[in-house]
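Appendix B. Extra example for self-study. Work through it before the problem class; the solution is given directly after the inputs so you can check yourself.
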Amino acid sequence: MPASLAASPIRRREGFPAATLPATIFLVLALLPTVTWITGGSYLISVGSRVMIFAIAAVALDLLVGYAALISFGHAAFIGLGAYAVGILSAYGFTDALVSLPVALAVSAAYAFLTGLVCLRTKGVYFIMITLAFGQMAFFTASSLAPFGGDDGLTIAARNTFAGFPVLRNERVFYYIVFFCLLGTYLFCRALVASRFGRVVRGAKENPIRVSTLGFDVYRFQLATYVIAGALAGLSGFLLANAAEFVSPAYMSWQRSGELIVMVLLGGLGSLDGAVIGAAVYLLTEEWLSAFTENWKVIFGPVLVLIVLFARGGLLGLTSALARRITRA
Amino acid sequence: MSTSLLVVQILNGLQLGVLLFLIAAGLTLVFGVMDFINLAHGVQYMLGAYFAVAFYALTGSFLAALVLALAATLAFGLLLELIVFRHLYDRDHLDHVIATFGIILFLNHGVKLVWGAAPLSLPMPELFSGSVQLADGLLYPVWRLVVIATGLAIATLLYVLVAHTRTGMLVRAGATNAAMVSALGVNIRRLFTIVFGFGAMLAGFAGIMIAPILSVEPGMGDTVLILALVVIVIGGIGSIRGAFLAAVLIGIVDTLGRSFSVDILRLAMGPSAARTVGPAVASMLIYLLMAVVLYIRPAGLFPAKGR
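Solution. Structure tokens for the complete assembly:
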């Protein structure tokens, strides 16, 4: 067994079946709106939607970073492209999701395909740098789109309709739409990773030369993965634009791409569950710390450094290590 | 477009180029020798500018501020290396990215807490504050010429250091094959600390020199960092010569693109369409350039790794 599979903290969990963690996560997310029935207010629902929207992008990024070892530092660009598709279409009067969702997916997939053609020719550090640069390219292009708000961003008059019905405009319904998008993304990625396609991609992560000797064109498999991850991030962008009713170049900033990597790493790489947990932990920490100080990143930055130095394997790795220690004692 | 405007913009491009080179030089050597991705290199540039403003307020002399700020950025870079980076060399690139990203978040917001979020400025030294007449009706600020001259001087100095000294030879050897250099009995860790400190100081120097022209504000290092990354990727990681040529190329292409893209596009489309598309094209230009270079040569123009 390759060393990195053996070291994977997720597969080593003892006592519980593997589906326990994701089942718990999705059960909690599904039941969250009922809590607000009791407490009242829509704050929890909007935070929950936001968490799940970023979780979709984080799961997609985990597909690249965790399973294909393609460290994309420009993932936020695809979110931004999906969001801008919604914004620009609604500026021209196309406000139905049946138009804007396919366009959002197609635009982000197309950008992933075109940039992927170049990016995937490079390896390692070069790949990180070039994805970062393409992310910045999208960012600066959006900033200079003066007719669509430029730096200031673009306000969307109203959320998209779906086949003419304003279903997205009800917060609770919107929450469940986002929920099913996340669930669908998760199950799709889970199936993809387990499929023959996924095994080739994972194999190429361990040893690309060996996989290509077996007759697989690694470049094509990685390109397909890159396009899928880009399109899923576009889905996240579509939802984000509808949630905020606003799009801005800030969605594509390289700090945002960095934050997405942090989410994936925080939860634990290459498990998909970790990406969802990481997105939740990151955004809730942001929510919590920014209540104390506007400059909450002064606290968060050093925490990141400490996590990298001392908690390899993210939160999932940390908890399973703790669990092992307790069961052994 | 008139010739004098073209000359001015080429000089501006050259100035941006040497500035980028000062930052990229340290970055490319650190990458090359230790295979370490230091995204926090941009904040050294920012800190250089902030330190210069702070020391200027204390001493009232630009020269004193320059010297003190250089010493401070050097000390700060070495401190970061000692506390954090030293423990990360054996890790993979993802860990480098996240840890240095954390440092960027900390310092970008840290300077806000210390110096406030409002932009600061550093007064230009009296001696160089005027303009000089390059040709009839062509005035150019002296300070920008000083930046270009010092930048070129440092590039020459670096060339001599890297190409003609023993330490430079070890640095080049380290960029080609660090494990082999280490096996030959060279203390590669100490070599790296030297390279790292020197690189941090150069980035700080760039920040100090640009502070009289730009406003000193939190996050000023981020944009420059990305440009410097583009430079070292085009130039080939680990190559000083590549970094210099790519920096000047990027500086000139970016500056000329921004000033002339609207005029050039107006030849092909209507004036209002050109005004809309022009800025977008101009800001994409260097990234397209990078994409083309990497498509043809995936390891940059002058890759240092001997493979």
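Self-check: Chain B has a mean pLDDT of 87. If your reasoning did not lead you there, revisit section 3.
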